Prior knowledge:
The chain crosses the membrane at residues 27-47, 74-95. The chain is mostly helical.
Amino acid sequence: MPNDDTRNLRASHDSLSRFLGGSPLAVAFRLILLSTLVGVMLAAIGFDPWNIVQSIRLLVERVWDLGFDAINGLWRYFLLGAVIVIPIWLLSRLFGAPRGR
């Protein structure tokens, strides 16, 4: 029969897993992978992790210099991404949401 220390340790581990959304190692792996993928995408548009404010300012300046064709390009990227993101989000909300309250 487990003692009080074992139960407290198990309860704190369950609380941590519930807070993180899974086991700490699995969550760390997913965060590392996602951070790397997002970093690659941000690097492709010219962001620099050591000077993020300057990178954002330069990005806005480049978009402004390109004129309204840049807005058209951003709109196309948005639509292209939305074709994938919105259905996945909708399916995750329909099938992943808890039933009833």
